Fold each of these.
Amino acid sequence: MTKINTSLHSSRRKSRKAHFQAPSSVRRTIMSAPLSKELREKHNVRSIPIRKDDEITIVRGTNKGRSGKVTSVYRLKYVIHVERIAREKSNGQSVPLGIHPSKVQITKLKGDKDRDNILERIAKGRVQNAERRKAREEK
């Protein structure tokens, strides 16, 4: 079977290197989170890069079921910090827990002009792909 995307490497070593040395712009897209069922129906989009002030629900791990607002997106470590989800250090200090965006679900988007444009663009692409698929099946 031939490669689908020739710009990506299938070697484990090179893929890992590309992941951990990725620039911030690429990390943004890697740090995408799935939308809730309601938002998915509304926007016709499956996932979107997470950003500060989005409201999320954790779907995996020890904090499963807890929800809150994203306080920071830590691209260097590939984690997000959520309000009220922290752990106590031995000296009593509270430290936010890092959670990977793939393990959360966005329940409320912080909308602005740019974000709306992104959602529109993704939805339009999905519609076009569905039309292409349908046309191909008819042949």
Amino acid sequence: MAKDVFELLNHIDWTSERQLHIIGISMGGMIAQEMAYQEPNRIASLSLVSTAPRLINTVGFVENLRQRINLFIPKDTDVQLVEIKARLFSDQWLAAPDAEGNFPTNGDRFAAQEVKKRRNTEAFTRKGFTLQAIAAGWHHKSFEQLQEIGDKVGRERIQVMHGTIDKMITSYHGEMLVKELGGEESGVTRLFFKDRGHVLPVEERKEFARLIERMVDKTGGK
């Protein structure tokens, strides 16, 4: 998938050194790591959000097995919505009044958006979901590879962002990224959001945008 992104960027002639500000969220963060590993000199800044260098079992064998099985058990839509909301967002954010003002709570708005998405059966398929899960499971960046990314991209150009109660990809994985990229002491920016879940651009919209803008301004594409 990283090669697909580079093919598109090459097609539109975005090929200069230090031209790309890459923001990768969840599996997108895994793709962003691969991009930084393949073409480090093209990266102006690298923001790795709610993602992992490789997936580690942090909940124990039985719970990990239960979660994996549950992904593929057919369920009513209402049950699926309750489970996906709990995995993606903090309870605090879900219960808060809808930020857009059209629904009673943020959780209600997300549920409505999710139902609308799933009605598009050509775009949202079981096959696509399964392949995404497999791709995320196969992603693996070693300590040595992350050190190389830090060396060649430049640690001052890298920030790792994670919610402390992320149930999709636990914050342990974010800490792994910070440490194995070289650590804060070497210039990597660590931004962890207390009591926030997996989708930081939604739960912390204004602050997330501010921090991304700060990194872009700091690196300046040079």
Amino acid sequence: MSTTPVEDAMRFKITEALKPLTLEIHNDSAMHAHHKAMVGSVSKETHFRLVITSEAFKSKMQPARHRMVYTLLKEELEREGGIHALQLKTRTPEEEERQLAREKAEQGQPIADAGNK
């Protein structure tokens, strides 16, 4: 039996439906266990941050992308003791590539350019 059933279900559903190139699932529940809303909760899987890069997000605005994920995780969000907070970063492969290039530039690293040889 898994000790992370909610995370496992999220990983499975997102992978099956969105075929992500990048999928990061961060369980931040421990940082929020002391909050008033969490009093009496025995779940260790209530607060998550997700980073998802998928072709499925192409030509969709952020709200539509987030609705896609919420629809996939409807059961986990509605379940008693389930997900209380879900932070999403959704992007296309091109958006991820641009972000990585920006981060490299900020760190002073050379940016690979197919046009320069």
Amino acid sequence: MEIPNPRRILILSPPSTDLEPLIQALTAPPPSSTTPPTPSPSPPLLLLHHIHTPYYRTTIPIWTDHIPSPPAFHTEWLALPGAADVVAAIGAWIIAFPKPATSAELQATQSLLATVAAVISHHLAAPSSSSSFAIVEAPARFAVALPRRQLPLLQLEDAAWEDLCRESGGWEFVDGDGGGGGARNEFGETTGLPRLLEGLQSVEWDADDEGGMSEEGEEEEAMREPIMAADAEGGAERDTGGGGESLDTEGEGLDAEGEEGDAEVQALQRMMLKMQAVKEMGADLPEGERRKLAARAVRAVMRGL
């Protein structure tokens, strides 16, 4: 599946941050690609990230900007008329920062993460009605610590970094100075910038334009078939008592409260059957694709309610 109009990647960083290793990793051709990416009419200076998996492929524009002052950024982005549209167009936020050498620099990094997270949350809570990008799920957030020549650097374990980033706005920590040669941590997870590239594959990039039926929309319609089949199965079970026998009709005098309770139970059963059908559909998919399938399935289920 080709995603023709994906959301964007936005990289924010303090001034003078060396983004070269990050940009090189993001703009390199995908190793799994057997065909060259679709040519883009975009200006040659535009940075592009190519994703090519067995399930979808797309070319994502990369935006970059510096944040000299987190308080000024916060004020500007809350007051800027078009800020909500920009936030809706971003599928992944990346905060890139040099590894800190002092406690003061560490606190500045934490403030930067918290400030940007607050801006994202503000605009997600009140999305723009004029944006062509429908927000179907919260954007991904990555905090990338980049290598730095200055020594000595402040020494923090990965676990401490992960806690700090998560508590500063739900960011996923990525050590930009590791992960070479396919390195993995003790849990078998990819590390370093390869982890970032892996995480970007799990993002919901499709803009989900409601103006027409996209390929993903067609997939959702196809997905509705087993969901509706599960719904029909649930209805058949209700008609036969779930075991091929007729329902007991002696309770025809139940009051309205009892009937309402039965209706709620039946609705819950239908929902469980639908979600079980989706679970079976995604059993053989990688985790990232299962997450995307689940997000699409929820939308399909809600539309069918």
